[in-house]
Design a protein that fits this description.
Elements lengths: L2 H39 L9 H10 L21 H8 L7 E6 L4 H11 L8 E7 L6 H10 L4 E9 H5 L6 E2 L5 E7 L16 E2 L6 E5 L15 E7 L1 H10 L5 E6 L12 E2 L5 E6 L15 E2 L5 E8 H10 L7 E7 L2 H11 L8 E5 L3 H13 L9 E7 L6 H23 L8 E7 L14 H8 L3 E5 L7
Parallel strand pairs: 1-2, 2-3, 3-5, 4-6, 5-7, 7-8, 8-9, 9-11, 10-12, 11-13, 13-14, 14-15, 15-16, 16-17, 17-18
């Protein structure tokens, strides 16, 4: 076949392709016209909802504790249609918290994000959470923008490496309306230990700051308005640093501390008296392996304490603390008491009868003598914890001698609770509203109890008491 004939055939094919392209183009134009008319005339049921109801639905769509993402609410809601975009923009509750992973947005996107969250007409206080890598953003521009909007920020949380936090030294923040500050030191990617974090003069003019949570940042290395703080939470502090915090913050009401590893604490050092502390939570790394190390309570006198939550606490330490503090008005106590049987009885006979304001009690792994003394008092004595409403008992599988011991303790607890609520009918004590008995099991173990041993708990449920019996995962009722 001659080349001229082939060229002619190819030309015809190209003409047909052009024709089909014109047909396709005309169809797309027609489709767009029909879609435009449909969007003008069609009624979508969801768009007929009152804006106030749609706004409430939007708020319930917010993901919990996730970083800002264009594919999740609230940003996603602004990209569906104009109606939803307007409702989302007019719903302040959608924009009260911004969790921003630095390094995942370019500088232009960061500017737009901040402008979106800090729109002037919203006027609500914001919680800002910053994570990621400060080294991957235009830090001067970002910090300038953050400072410009600081009057909107009531809560600031930083989760950054020590090297990242060190970059903040060049950008002090004036945060007059800041009420909560949280700083968590992330591990370095190269696992090389960094120098202690120094944040002196980074947060200035914080005249409304009252709540602080710091991780591994020593009191001497951060500038804070110590006199006005009321809530302080710290992680990986040693005893000296905790006592320094208590001296620095005379108006402290709540302290939550996780103590670092210490092999020795001098028992002869002076006791510190704090006249305003009301709530104390004490955790300690590897406390089970270092019970010979004195508990923080050994060094404190707290006459106004109403909430105490801690792990392994020696009965003798608790007794001495209570006497020293003139039996503080405890309303909540969650403890794991350890000690000799005679010390257990001393606590039951001397300390607990004095806690007439106690409403919420959680005991972990009480010894059998302690349990017998405690529940006999609870069942029969009108002056024994008269305001108690909530009682939680916890055991570790390894602390129970055998199945028979577990069953006998279970039945003892149930009978004491039933008798207690009979006393309550006479109006001399408060009724127990909540009772739990939880056994912590080793891996692959299961909890099985005789059906009859749970009859008392079923009766308590019938009587209106909220009851939970089982493991942390499974209830036996």
């Amino acid at each position: 076949m001659a080349t001229s004939a082939l060229r002619a055939e190819l030309h015809q094919i190209n003409q047909q392709i052009d024709l089909q392209r014109r047909v396709l183009y005309d169809l797309e134009v027609s489709r767009f016209a029909v879609q435009s008319k449909l969007s003008q005339l069609a009624v979508y049921p969801i768009l007929t909802l009152p804006p106030e109801l749609t706004s409430e639905i939007f708020v319930h769509c917010l993901p919990e504790d996730s970083w800002a993402d264009i594919y999740e609410a609230p940003l996603l809601l602004t990209r569906v249609c104009r109606t939803w975009a307007h409702i989302a923009a007019s719903t302040p509750a959608l924009w009260r918290s911004l969790r921003l992973c630095l390094g995942e947005w370019d500088d232009q996107e960061l500017r737009e994000l901040l402008e979106t969250w800090f729109r002037p007409n919203r006027g609500s206080a914001l919680k800002i959470v910053l994570g990621g890598d400060l080294a991957r953003v235009d830090l001067p521009e970002f910090m300038t923008s953050l400072q410009r909007h600081a009057h909107h920020i009531s809560s600031l949380s930083l989760t950054l490496t020590a090297r990242n936090l060190a970059l903040l030294k060049s950008f002090p923040l004036k945060m007059r309306f800041l009420r909560e500050l949280e700083i968590t030191v992330e591990d370095e990617e190269d696992e090389i230990y960094a120098e202690p974090v120094d944040l002196k003069d980074v947060f200035v003019d914080t005249s409304q700051l009252t709540q602080v949570h710091v991780d591994q940042i020593l009191p001497a290395n951060i500038t804070l308005p110590w006199q006005q703080l009321t809530d302080f939470q710290c992680y990986d502090y040693f005893l000296d640093e905790v006592l320094e915090v208590l001296r620095l913050i005379p108006n402290l009401v709540s302290l939550d501390v996780t103590l670092g590893l210490e092999d020795h604490r001098d028992p002869a050092r002076d006791k510190l008296i704090h006249h305003n502390l009301q709530r104390l939570t004490v955790m300690e790394q590897e406390r089970l392996d270092r019970q010979e190390t004195l508990h923080l309570l050994h060094f404190l006198t707290l006459p106004k304490l109403d909430t105490l939550k801690t792990e392994e606490l020696e009965e003798r330490t608790l007794r001495a603390f209570m006497r020293r503090s003139d039996i503080p008005p405890l309303a909540t106590m969650h403890v794991n008491l350890v000690g000799f049987p005679h010390e257990c009885l001393d606590v039951c006979q001397e300390i607990l009868p004095s806690l007439r304001w106690l409403e919420d009690l959680s005991l972990s792994c009480p010894t059998l003598p302690f349990a017998q003394a405690f529940f006999s008092g609870l069942a029969a004595r009108e002056t024994f914890l008269p305001r108690l409403r909530k009682l939680a008992i916890g055991y570790d599988e390894l602390t129970l001698a055998n199945q028979a011991t577990l069953t006998s303790v279970l039945e003892l607890v149930a009978q004491a609770a039933l008798n207690r609520n009979v006393l309550a009918q006479a109006g001399v004590v408060h009724c127990l509203d909540f009772l739990s008995f939880v056994v912590k099991l080793t891996e692959l173990a299961s909890l099985r109890l005789p059906f009859a041993s749970l009859s008392g708990y079923r009766q308590l449920q019938i009587n209106g008491v909220e009851v939970y019996i089982g493991t942390s995962l499974d209830s036996l009722l």
